[in-house]
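Job type: complex structure
Entries:
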Amino acid sequence: MRFHSLLPSFKPHDATGSIASEFRGLLRRLGCESEIFSPDIHPDLRHLARPSAELASAVAPADALLYHHGIASELVPLLSSLRCRKVLAYHNVTPARFFAPFDPAVARALEDGRLQLAALRDQVDAAVCFSEYSASELREAGFPRVSVVPPPLEPWRVVHPGDERLYRRLSDGPTNLLFVGRVAPNKRIEDLIDLALLLNARKPARPVRLVVAGPTQKASDYFRMLERRAAPLGKRALFLGALSQHELCACYRAAHLFVSMSEHEGFGLPLCEAMAAGVPVIAFDGGAVREALGGAGVLFSPKSLPHVAALCEILLDDPVRRRRIVEAQKRRAAQLGPERTLPPFAEALAPLLPPAPPARRPARARPRVAFVVHRYGAELVGGAERHCRSIVQRMARHWDVEVLTTCAADYLSWANALPPGVSSDGPVPVRRFPSVRTREMRSFNALSGRMFGRAQERLEEERWLADQGPDCPALLSFLAEQRTAYDGFVFFTYLYAPTALGLPIAGKRALFVPTAHDEPPLRFGLYRQTFAAPAAILFNTPEEQALCEGLFELPGVHREAVGIGVEPRPGDPQALKAKLGLRGDYLLYLGRICAGKGLRDLVAAHALLRKRLGAQAPALVLAGTNELGLTERPGVFLPGPMDEAQKWDALGGAAAIVVPSALESLSLLALEAWSAGKPVIVNGESAVLAGQCRRSGGGLSYHGLSDFAEQTAKLLQDDDLRRKLGQAGQGYVASHYRWERIEERYQRILAEQVMDRTGGAARQPPSRSRAGGPGSRGGRRGVVRANGLHEREAP
Amino acid sequence: MSRFELSGEGVDEALRDEIVQRAGSEVAAAPEAAPPASVPTDLFGQLLRSLSENADSAQGFPPQSHRSFGGAVVAAKRGFRLAFQPFINDALARQRAFNQRLLDALAAMRAEQLEISTRLERLERKLEAPSKTRRSRRG
């Protein structure tokens, strides 16, 4: 079924938009096709939502709509005209009395918002609120089925050093009293100003500065009143206006106390952020503030400034008490997040949702498993794509395998080059879904450059992911609708949208092969949900596993370094030499020739080697699609892409194989080189490559261009060393990367981590199954529904 | 006079005592809190009132600006409006007349609806009365 969301505006830096976006993700996890509709979509977010004008044709009477209400909205007549089931998400309407003395227009809009709320009462089937404070309003007004759902907030996003310049500006001496929120009359900023004046008067030796971060209407009567009131504070009253997430992080980092005098809050995200950031929170007991603090922080009432000032002084002076409060706050902040929202959200919407899949399904002889990957095809070059296809082909011997992928052949543009629908790759059905737009690399790289290394809010990251692509809503809808038709899923590569958005839909039915390496996007908060969602994560190497375990909390997710199988084939060592007219040795690189693989550095390093060895220097053969536009030069050959037979010929004739990339989750090339008995020379900047070399004893790693020349010269001049390294690598691959071993691991992990949980096809333990492989961790034997909700184990 | 109330996981008696020591045990009576906002019950009536407040489309809302130099923007908007008010009145005269008729029609509907409700209520009471009498006779 379809369960869409409708909201008055969809903009960055807006809690309603973030919550709507999180709800969309949760609705997809609950098996619904879900999109966001709004009449006012910010241009940056245009790929994340659809105009509300399209809504009427997008819903049928059996569908449902989640309408977000917070202030007077032009959407209520539209909502009334729609024939579908409706749920109200009530963000609370600020009482108009706060605004009446300052801004009659806003006061009017707020009054109208309440009138509209009354009009909605008889139209909605259920209502969800984020606090008991809001829910009681609706219950009193006679709304049906009112539920309280903790908002799907991510307060941990402010735990980041943030903008260094702003941090330094705020760390120039005075004690910072921080408040974050819109500068609006209900927030009672004037009380904060009075508090700051009092604190400065009580203890002049410790200057206190009031820092207010939030959208400000500088021409409003309210702000003018605040300016007049704050005049005695001079530079100790700082109104920073609307800030980016990165700047906000710096504010929390520089704050000594977070004080709220607000008399009306629908929930209060900044209170939760301050708690997550470790800033002691002192808040007046107004609106839903008590519920937001959840027993942490310090809640006070009534507003007696001398007492609040005394409380501030104590918390500033007493580090032990401060630490105790901060620890309690951090525990409270950890209780918030989409994962905590999902069970009550599902319960609130239960009568409207599709029925849950049966706990046990009829046994099938072979599990039905779908592989989800961003591109798929025999002719495609790409490490993860090749990896996925190899696993698909091998596992098709044990499972009924199907591939769910896009119509893209080019990973840069994602243009729909292959026909949509079902085709086949040998015995394996391949179901292709079209992407709805192509990627424009220049603007995408510019966006990435602006975002990498900075704290981001959820919607900014979602925008980046939509731009990253491939943007394939039909694939996500298919997953939402058909997820119970498969016994298991295997998702490949964390980076792209089908996995990042699709994996949470499949939930505990999924195995995940992230193929992650240490790069800036891996630190985006949105991937937390991706990594926390599956039943098991199959890493390529222990280094990749350590990296991901350091970045993500993965409770209940089985983790294991599995890798890929390699099957050596005999090759003709003279074939490539004959083709290129080479008389001496050559170094070989096989793969995409692109900037991210370190090829420019390799060519420069090879030039150094030529200077060093002169006529004795080996040639450098770079075989693969030349995306960099490199041209041949003395000693450097670019024979283009190679098929399987040519590849093994080339490997067989090489003196050594070079892997120059600093960003790898596993080097398949190194494994193939070793299986052919050849030594490898790898970029030591990659912990994964260095680890592979160390464990196998099959290669040398280099750090920098001159070191490459030195190590390569050493290797080429010592036949015995070359032979020893090649043999060690060959033995390592034979014992760890045989296909039988890899297949056995996939079978075991699916059986133990997915089938036992969801009760899919009859479990088929592999012939030599073990309780857990080396490096296996986590794993929970409880029964969890595919949508992530715990349920009672079926008898 | 009332007490200064504190709550939270890190709050204990020692903290309360220290605050009392620094600021006194009692606080001046807090201003009476405004009643919490509620969802209107007489929806139709309130909507009608709200509509009539906004029926004169020639009268704009007070000009505003969110910009830092908003004062100048607001003054410019006021000046513009003042200068062109006769033309605004003229251009929106028909809209104003339409709004007024619409309000009249809605008010007539409301009156009729109230009358129907009253008659219905009366009828329901009449219907209920004999059955109660019958029950009481049996009892």
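Summary: Chain A touches chain B through 47 residues (CB under 8 Å). Chain A has a mean pLDDT of 90.
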